[in-house]
Amino acid sequence: MPTSPVRLIARLALLIAAVAVPAMATGSPPLPHVTAGRIVRMQESSRFVPPHTVDVWLPPGYPAQAPYAVLYMFDGNMLFDATQTWNHQSWRAADTATALIREGRTRPFIIVGIWNAGDRRESEYYPQKVWRSLTRAQRERARAMDLKLPVEPYSDAYLRFLVEELKPRIDERFRVAGDASDTAVLGSSMGGLMAMYAISQYPRVFGAAGCLSTHWPGTALKPREGNPSPDAFVAYLRAHAPAPAGHRIYFDHGTATLDAMYAPTQQRVDPLFRARGYTGADFQSQVFPGAAHTEAAWAARLARPMTFLLPPRAR
Question: How far is CA 6 from CA 9, 10, 147, 203, 288, in A?
């Protein structure tokens, strides 16, 4: 029997919103299990946003290959251990990173997995300057669509937490290279929007950004006539995309479930970067036919952005 529109929307809502369910809602969970390396948990307070749990993955042999690059990843509660996630999937980020480092396909790096804000995930990850570029009527229309923002977007404050508080703590505590060329950010869906926003707002802090299944509709779950978000994201990037010198940008999307709606906007975004002077050496936009909007799909292709964003250092 065909799936009804109501059931389809409910399933899509789980894909983009349920990743927000924080395991810490019922108390601090055990550390994620990883097959290689180890996890260090940090409970981070902030002047700008509510506290966040941060899981730092250190590769096998750390700190023998210091200084390490740093990959900041959003939705950190979904990265390492499928037994602890709401959908029993994970990015398997430690497995992929271990193999890439061992094979010399990337420089040695650590992963800083920042847990999301639970039911405020969309408000934390929606690029705030894009939101503020909308008229009041457009904001009201956007908030009335399938996923409602629980509060006004506060991603500028979240980036201040990341740049002014968390990164200095990581640089001090771990054997890492703190410069932009060794600092990358990566996320998927709304986290893909945040990766794009982070490198655009702080191009001197982040040298590379991976934006997987970037959720160009904003908070909507399906294409909607009158949705102001895609045009606003394109306009923001036209004005604020970082210059190519010293930067690497990676976009991708699949063609199934939520990812099926991303191509039209992505096809408008790609020429903006090429017009700014990006080439194949520092810009990629990939399409994965049949790939859905799931952690399993992102795990299957995670080696692509990792190798592109953090290639081996020049000798």
Answer: 5, 6, 14, 42, 27
Q: What are phi and psi of 223, to 5 degrees?
A: -60, 130
* Cα-based distances in Å from 42 to 114, 115, 161, 284, 289: 10, 11, 14, 33, 38
The per-type count for the chain, helices as H runs and strands as E runs, is 12, 8
Residue 180 phi/psi, 5° resolution? -65, -35
Structure tokens of 97?
A: 């990173």
Residue 225 has pLDDT above 90, yes or no: no
Helical pair 190-201 and 229-240, crossing angle rounded to 10 deg: 30
Spatial separation of the C-alpha atoms in residues 240 and 170, rounded to whole Å: 27
Q: Residue 216 carries which DSSP code? A: T
Residues 159 and 256: their CA atoms lie apart, in Å, by: 31
CB-based burial, 15-27: b 16+ in 10 Å, e otherwise: bbbebbbbbeeee
Cis bond leading into 244, ω under 30°? no
Can you tell me which residue has the tokens 């789980």? 14
Helices 263-275 and 229-240, packing angle to 10 deg:
10
Name the residue with higher pLDDT: 106 or 21: 106
Instruction: Please report, rounded to a whole number, the percentage of residues in the chain having pLDDT higher than 90.
Output: 81
List the one residue out of 22, 199, 26, 35 whose CA is nearest residue 114.
22
Do the beta carbons of residue 155 and residue 125 sit within 8 Å? yes
User: Cis peptide before 311, with omega less than 30 degrees from 0?
Assistant: no
* Amino acid at the residue 137: A
Q: What is the CA radius of gyration of the chain?
A: 18
List, in sequence order, every beta strand (DSSP E) within the chain.
Answer: 38-44, 52-58, 69-73, 109-114, 183-188, 208-212, 248-254, 283-288
Q: Provide the token pair at 241.
A: 């995309």
CA pair distance 270, 196, nearest whole angstrom: 13
pTM equals 0.92
